[in-house]
Amino acid sequence: MNIENEIESKKEKIKEQNIEKLVENEITIEKQNNFLETTLGKTINTAIDIGLRSLLPDLIEEQVINIKEVLLKNGLKEGINMAIKSAIDLGKSTIGLATGNFEDLSQIHTAIKKGGIIDSLSKAIDNVLKATTKNNLISSSASRIIKKGKNIILDAISTNLEEKYLEDVKSLEKISKYISNWKNYYNQKNISGMEKEYKKLKQQLDTVVMLEKTVTAAKKVENMHNLIKNKGIEYELSEEEKELVNILS
Question: What is the pTM of this model?
Answer without folding.
Answer: 0.76
